[in-house]
Fold this protein.
Amino acid sequence: MKEYIKHWFAEFGIKLVQWQTALVMVGVIVVTALLVHWLFHRVMHNVVDKLTRKSRRLWRDILFEEKLFSRLALTVQGIIIFIQIRLWLNQDTTLFNWLQTLTLLWITLFILLTIFSLVDGVGYMAREHKRTRNLPIQGFLQAIKLLFTVVAIIFMIAVVINKSPTLIISGLGAMTAVMMLVFKDPILGFIAGIQLSANDMLRIGDWLEMPSYGADGDVIEIALTTVKVQNWDKTITTIPTYALISDSFKNWQGMTQSGGRRIMRNIYIDVTSVKFMDDELMERLSQASLLAPYLEEKNKEIKAYNKAHNFNMEVKINGRRLTNLGTLRAYLVNMLKNHPGIHQDMTLMVRQQAAENQGIPLQIYAFTNTTVWAEYEAIQSDIFDHIYAVIDAFELRIHQSPGSADVRFLREALAQPAQEKTSQALPDADAGAEPTADSSRT
């Protein structure tokens, strides 16, 4: 072909020397490259665009949004230029070596970018599919990119120095320790990503709590070396991926999937307010719809027991009796069982724990039938609002440390008798006073 072009110029009386022939060949290569570029990026681009409009939106996004088509076209364009260089130019010239090296670098670069687009397309497809949407595959995809990047860099170096890539790879054996040190985080992150995925320990969207890193919120990204958590205050915490394997963390996703969120809170009862129930208190509480069946059944049971053992019930320590604290526990259990916001298929109890300096802890242990944070807090607050309001009906008191108002009231109460004693000790001014000169005149 080259001889044909030289002969064609000779017919017009133009005799080309070597450098002119090379310049003409380069011009032919450039013109061909421009034509191929126009063919791919104008004609074929429009054809593919029309075809993908009729198909699923997914493929259109992968081809154009992820730049797969354009990068693949540039790769093919580089291969065509490389073939033309070998056809049109003498292989013994410096120009041939320079253009071939640049073209090989071009092809390698856009092959790498095409692989990147394919990997990003796989990630896009995974995010769009319901089953794989929350899987931590981002780390795997980044590891694949890193692997192909290393291979591409080795090949580019081999092209520039005109050596075999195997020679460079064999030389890397002596740099293994350095490579392990440089790529420590990616290697650890890749291994951690495999363990997280294989054991299904963490997914995007899970609620993660890791106090050692100040993380408490939703997982928004699981990458090769880092995991990003958006905390509830909208700040972002970045955690090394391998830290999720070496350290402990709490994943609240199980709670979300169960459909119930736990309430576990104590109220502290003043020990001095606990007592046996008298007839008046019994009569008053029997009017409560949640307590009437319990009190009726319990009274029958206790009377039968005491009668069977012939106890002298005039002595308080004899026999069995109902206490206001035990009755409160029964009331709270019935209240929770009838509450519309409490999950009835999960653990539900009101338990008394060991007494402390603050009083007797009475713990409410139940699960709401929603995991939405705001709804959960509203249900929990309503329950304890009610408990604090009805506690006085059982003649019980909530333990509370003295506040400034209590201290001020106590001081005023102690000061009042002292003032009364002082006023009584002082003599009456009118009764004990002697008449003055002015009074004698009157």
About this structure: Confidence is low (pLDDT under 50) at residues 429-442. The chain is about 60% helix and 10% strand. Strands lie at 207-210, 215-222, 226-231, 236-240, 250-251, 261-269, 349-352, 360-368. The first helix runs from residue 2 to 11.
